[in-house]
């Protein structure tokens, strides 16, 4: 388990990263990649959509272009304060402070679920994916963006020491263990030489 796959350390990390996150993020996860991912999620205008690990609200902002019923959850109050500044606390987005592995929602609540740049910090990613499946309606689309496992052995060692990086084979294992039957993976990249993202689009099976 990597250094930041610990909830306490991850919160402390984002306490400081939150001050510069929106300036750094476009180098690894930009608007073009977000738009491409939103097209795969393809929420309807009246869908209730959950953003798990919303951070400062970059993904949330894209979701609001597609639907007006957005619910956003994060464990870092410092990240969420940045999102509050963008959207308000009681206006366009319903915010929740919570844990991806113990989502505070009833079964079958959401028509679609989005999570970008969050799974790599979950100590138990399969548990988080199961929770997403639980709170999403049967047939709902789930989209999860995480960091693709690097090819270089040196970078692999560094990645393993920090947080969860995973390839398509590991994504298969996680999603299957979490109970998903239909899914596909896409590799995204902001520009040549920048870190790659692995984006999985899955369908919630019937109960």
What's the quick description here?
The chain is α/β, with parallel strands linked by helices.
Write up what this structure looks like:
The chain is of the alpha/beta class and 207 residues long. Helices cover 36% and strands 25% of the residues. The chain has 8 helices and 7 strands; from the N terminus they run αααβαβαββαβααββ. The longest helix is centred in the N-terminal third of the chain and has 11 residues, at 7-17. It is globular, with a radius of gyration of 16 Å.
Helical/strand content category: alpha/beta
Molecular shape = globular
Query: What is the tally of beta strands?
Result: 7
Strand content: 15-25%
Helix content: 25-40%
Characterize the biggest β-sheet.
7 strands, mixed
User: Helical region count?
Assistant: 8
End-to-end CA span: 31 Å
Query: What is the H-and-E element order?
Result: HHHEHEHEEHEHHEE
The order of strands across the largest sheet is 3-2-1-4-5-7-6
Q: Give the averaged pLDDT, no decimals.
A: 86
Radius of gyration: 16 Å
List low-pLDDT spans.
Answer: 12-18
């Amino acid at each position: 388990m990597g250094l930041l796959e610990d909830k306490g350390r991850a919160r402390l990390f984002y306490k400081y990263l939150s001050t510069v996150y929106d300036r750094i993020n476009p180098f690894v996860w930009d608007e073009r990649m977000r738009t491409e991912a939103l097209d795969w999620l393809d929420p309807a205008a009246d869908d209730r959509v959950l953003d798990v690990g919303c951070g400062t609200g970059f993904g949330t902002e894209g979701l609001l272009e597609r639907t007006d019923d957005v619910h956003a959850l994060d464990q870092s109050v410092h990240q969420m304060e940045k999102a509050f500044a963008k959207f308000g606390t009681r206006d366009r987005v319903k915010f929740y402070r919570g844990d991806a592995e113990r989502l505070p929602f009833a079964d079958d609540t959401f028509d679609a679920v989005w999570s970008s740049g969050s799974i790599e910090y979950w100590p138990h990613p399969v548990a988080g994916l199961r929770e997403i499946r639980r709170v999403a309606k049967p047939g709902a689309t789930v989209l999860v963006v995480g960091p693709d496992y690097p090819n270089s052995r040196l970078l692999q060692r560094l990645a393993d020491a920090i947080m969860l990086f995973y390839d398509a084979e590991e994504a298969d294992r996680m999603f299957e263990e979490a109970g998903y039957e239909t899914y596909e993976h896409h590799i995204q990249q902001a520009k040549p030489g920048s870190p790659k993202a692995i984006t999985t689009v899955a369908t919630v099976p019937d109960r």
